[in-house]
Specification:
This protein has helices at residues 11-14, 30-54, 64-67, 95-98, 108-117, 143-156, 174-180, 223-230; strands at 17-22, 71-77, 80-90, 122-130, 163-169, 184-193, 199-211, 233-234. The chain has 237 residues and is an alpha+beta fold. It has a single domain (6-234), classed as Aminopeptidase, CATH 3.40.630. A hairpin with a 2-residue loop joins strand 2 and strand 3. Helix 6 (143-156) packs across helix 8 (223-230). The longest helix is centred in the N-terminal third of the chain and has 25 residues, at 30-54. The relative contact order is 0.18.
Length: 237
């Protein structure tokens, strides 16, 4: 389906889009907690399928994968969770941070490149999640693009880190989406490993970064993404 020009979006459709931003821990208010749980359920269902079916590795997912994050960004349509992404902030001078499972398949050369980009703390983004029914354009909207740009916009507001990085799965062409939304490549074609350090057939990733010290990461905003971003709900308590 052809994407609609940002100026042509139906206001009735746009009014049903909601962007929620959470800290990692579960909110205490009932309304925010409900949205948080919807985002969690979407993540668990999608990544359960990815790991157990697409990757063929039997494993159980635990909620602390989300609750340990620094920031969670979730997109809703008509109160249905259609996407979620999150990052945690770490200090690359710390051996504790470098032993994080996030870096389990990173070559040392790639880590050195990452360190060279920033002497400060860094955002580690992972588990980009889109509802299966919203992976292709619907109602003229590229939902995964809207989610990613919203996520990048949130990172641009982050005071603790100048650089964000992720491993973009190439089997889903996620690296192309990242480049479209302001990322640059750090390392190409890195074999993706399980938490046990085992390779996964056909799974490779590009290691990419967003550097907010330039304005490139915000250039892919359009009228829709700005409207959604400006009406976001910060549900951190």
């Amino acid at each position: 389906m052809k994407e609609t020009s940002p100026a042509e979006f139906d206001e009735a459709i746009v009014s049903k889009i909601k962007l929620c931003v959470f800290s990692g821990s579960q909110p205490t208010s009932s309304e925010a907690a409900l949205m948080y749980e919807k985002a969690y359920i979407l993540w668990k269902e999608v990544w359960g399928h990815v790991i157990n079916v697409e990757m063929g590795k039997s494993t159980r997912l635990f909620s602390d994968e989300i609750s340990k994050q620094s920031k969670i960004v979730s997109l809703f349509f008509d109160n249905i969770a259609v996407g979620v992404a999150f990052y945690k902030i770490r200090d690359l001078d710390s051996i504790v941070s470098l032993d994080d499972s996030f870096f389990r398949f990173w070559p040392q050369d790639s880590i050195n490149k990452l360190k060279a980009l920033s002497s400060k703390r860094i955002s580690l983004a992972s588990n980009f999640t889109v509802h299966p029914d919203f992976r292709k354009s619907r109602m003229g909207i590229c939902w995964k693009g809207l989610l990613l740009q919203s996520f990048v916009n949130e990172f641009a507001m982050e005071e603790e880190a100048e650089v964000m990085t992720t491993a973009a799965r190439k089997i889903r062409s996620n690296e192309k989406l990242c480049f479209k939304h302001g990322a640059t490549v750090l390392s190409h074609d890195i074999p993706y490993l399980t938490l046990d350090g085992l390779p996964i057939d056909g799974e490779i990733a590009d290691l990419v970064v967003w550097d907010k010290r330039g304005d490139k990461i915000l250039q892919s905003n359009n009228q829709l993404s700005l409207a959604v971003w400006n009406s976001r709900l910060n549900l951190n308590k």
